[in-house]
Write a structure and sequence with these properties.
Strand content: 15-25%
Oligomer: single chain
Mean pLDDT: 96
Number of domains: 2
CATH topology of the largest domain: Rossmann fold
CATH superfamily of the largest domain: Thiamin diphosphate (ThDP)-binding fold, Pyr/PP domains
Number of helices: 12
Radius of gyration: 19 Å
């Protein structure tokens, strides 16, 4: 194991997969000489050349269309969209073309491609560069949506995503890029669609994803000082959703809080709350409580007040335990 930053773990995964499989190539704005907007492709142009690390014009629709065509013809493109907020610029390609390729052609064609894009707040980048949009794409059949929270998860899941024969939207939280963690030196993959229990507990289940996993863990530490043991589940993937792990935890704790950075309205928390309410109502000792951002654009100067944090998770747990 070697300590590595989140963004370096991403670069390592790309490097190893390009060395392993010649059909893997990278395409996007500033992915070449600049090494990507946040350094995720740094050094790969020199190592693999311009045919496999391809800078493009500023046209998300053109990038995504080219990637889809090459995927159908047998390549494995890894697309970098500079900010998740720019994904709407190529929404038709993602939702109506890429996600539906397998279905439209009766399984004769696949779209083995990864769409990497950084999202989330924490860097005071404002309302057009700070959104968490995973719930949009989890609503689309045919797409897998991955949201890693640690360097270890980021590398293992990205390698799995590149090897997958279906399209994977790989959403990275910008505020996690500098985070350090232990990453295996050798090749390893993590299963897409499998959640991870980051902290075991018996009193309440906290389900979270991406940056909010760390806020949930901080909240669990505060709660432990009060004699409350929270189980913290990191979804790692929101589509497919690992409801079995969630259900097993709720069956044990009888209480559930779902915390995410995205706007609470119509977020992943709403889906999880509905699933548990529909299929496990007899196991609950109180209502499912959601934690999320308010229904407003991400502000430039008030992110610390806007984004949910440990105190919000603690308050939600206290509300659940009050029943």
């Amino acid at each position: 194991m070697t300590e590595s930053r989140y963004i370096k773990a991403i670069a390592q995964a790309l490097d190893e997969e390009m060395a392993r499989d010649e059909t893997v190539y990278i395409i996007g704005e500033d992915v070449g000489a600049s090494g990507g907007a946040f350094g995720g492709t740094r050094g790969l142009l020199d190592k693999y050349g311009p045919l496999r690390v391809r800078d493009t014009p500023i046209s998300e629709a053109a990038i995504m269309g080219l990637a889809l065509g090459s995927a159908v013809k047998g390549l494995r493109p890894v697309v970098e969209i500079m900010f998740a907020d720019f994904l709407p610029m190529c929404m038709d390609q993602i939702v109506n073309q890429i996600a539906k390729t397998r279905y439209m052609f009766g399984g004769q064609f696949h779209a083995p491609m990864v769409i990497r894009s950084p999202g989330g707040g924490g860097l005071n980048a404002g309302p057009q560069h700070s959104q968490s949009l995973e719930a949009w794409f989890a609503h689309v059949p045919g797409l897998k949506v991955v949201v890693p929270s640690t360097p270890y998860d980021a590398k293992g899941l990205l390698k799995s995503a590149i090897r997958d024969d279906d399209p994977v939207l790989f959403l990275e939280n910008k505020a996690l890029y500098a985070m350090k963690g232990d990453v295996p030196d050798g090749d390893y993959v993590l299963p897409i669609g499998k959640a991870d229990i980051k902290r075991p507990g018996n009193d309440v289940t906290i389900v979270s994803l991406s940056r909010m996993v760390h806020q949930a863990l901080a909240a669990a530490k505060i709660l432990a000082e009060r004699g409350i043991e929270a189980e913290v589940i990191d979804l790692r993937t929101v589509s497919p959703l690992d409801k079995e792990t969630i259900f097993a935890s709720v069956e044990k704790t009888s209480r559930l809080v779902v915390a995410h950075e995205a706007v609470k309205t119509a977020g992943i928390g709403a889906e999880i709350s509905a699933l548990v309410s529909e299929e496990m109502i007899d196991c609950l000792d109180g209502p499912v409580v959601r934690v999320g951002a308010p229904f407003a654009p991400v502000p430039f100067s008030l992110e610390s007040d806007y984004l949910p944090g440990p105190a919000d998770v603690v308050a939600a747990v206290e509300k659940v335990l009050a029943y």
